[in-house]
Amino acid sequence: MKRDVVVTSVAFAGAAVACSLVALRITRKIRTRTGLDPFAVPNGSSREKGADGRKAALVLTSHPDDESYFFAPTIQALKAANVETHLVCLSDGGAGGDGETRKKELLRVKELFELEGMCIVEAEDLMDGMTNAWPAKTVMTVLDEYTGGAPTTFDYVVTFDAGGVSGHLNHVCTYEGTKQWIEERKVSISSDRGGCPQVWVLETTNAARKLSGALDFATSYLESLIDSRRVFVPSASPMQVLKAVRLHASQFVWYRKIFVVFSRYTYMNTLRRID
Fold first, then answer.
1. What is residue 141's DSSP assignment?
2. What is the pTM for the complete model shown?
3. How far apart, in whole angstroms, are the C-alpha atoms of residue 90 and residue 102?
4. Residue 248 per-residue DSSP state
5. What phi and psi values does residue 89 have, to the nearest 5 degrees?
6. 87: which strand partners?
7. N or C: which end of the chain has fewer CB within 10 A?
8. CB 56 within 8 A of CB 79
């Protein structure tokens, strides 16, 4: 019986990866023709961002491993578009007393994705915990400090949406803080603050879609065609995503092993612009 389950899981994983590769090829062609890629720079345009002319993005997460389980396809897309990519994690994920271990694991993921910058915030009011509500003002302060305009001016901020993918309170508070931050920044924008970045949030889906793997490709892609503020981002390499989550060894327990195989976030992201 166990062998049948293992064989079925492996077969599904193989099929999901194959579907994802096909999806990647199709969407690359369509996104190039329609301009759906939010991170692409049109031919002949000028990138006046930083000394090397590259655009820059800030991926804001709540815990070490969020970037791998949820945001990996987006990070891959940013890197493929030659966008300078920074990761800010609002806690060390140390609710179980393993914060130091999780920080070291995240450093290894930084190297895997070749991120240009990373910061792990350690603040008393941003403690990891399912019931810990994080103050929006603290999240906003972190964003102010990291996006102050020097040495990097950010074009994009990517974070959770109001559902937080899993409904985790820390994820939801991360979104609420980011939402208030961009709203205030749009009102009080000034040239010395480096302008107003685009803010993209990772869409939460229902449980059936969340656990449908690459089979959610068609629905997600069609939604991106209907809504101009929504973008479909397929994973450039599901195998790299699997490698990334395995680097978080302290968290790679049996149910997360199952989740990463069946999760749509391994194979695709859907981003929605809120600024």
1. H
2. 0.85
3. 13
4. -
5. -110, 125
6. 59, 118
7. N
8. no
pLDDT at 29 > cutoff 60: no
Dump pLDDT digits (tens) for 209-251. Answer: 999 999 999 999 999 999 989 999 999 999 999 999 999 999 9
Query: SS3 breakdown of the chain: % helix, strand, coil, rounded to 5?
Result: 55, 15, 35
The pLDDT tens digits of the residues spanning 155-203 come to 999 999 999 999 999 999 999 999 999 999 888 765 444 568 999 999 9
Indicate if the alpha-carbon torsion angle 254, 268, 89, 129 is positive or negative.
Answer: negative
Collect all residues with Cβ–Cβ distance below 8 Å to 17 and sequence separation of at least 6: 214, 238, 239, 267
Residue 241 is encoded by which pair of tokens? 């995503």
Q: Please choose, from the candidates 213, 257, 265, the residue with its C-alpha nearest in 3D space to the C-alpha of residue 5.
A: 257
Secondary element (H or E) of residue 57? strand 56-61
Q: Which helix (H) or strand (E) is 31 found in, with range?
A: helix 2-34
Q: Which residue has the tokens 């959610």?
A: 216
List the one residue out of 251, 267, 221, 257 whose CA is nearest residue 65: 251
* Structure tokens belonging to residue 64: 């070490």
What single string gives the DSSP state of each residue in 66-107?
HHHHTSHHHHHHHHHTT-EEEEEES---GGGS-HHHHHHHHH
Query: Residue 63 is encoded by which pair of tokens?
Result: 């815990």
99-113 and 72-80 helices, crossing angle to 10°:
40
pLDDT higher at 142 or 192: 142
- Which amino acid is residue 144, in one-letter code? D
- Three-state DSSP class for 157? strand
Structure tokens that stand for 262 in this block: 């069946």
Report how far apart, in Å, the C-alpha atoms of 142 and of each of 90, 120, 246 are.
Answer: 8, 11, 28
Strand partners, 234: 268
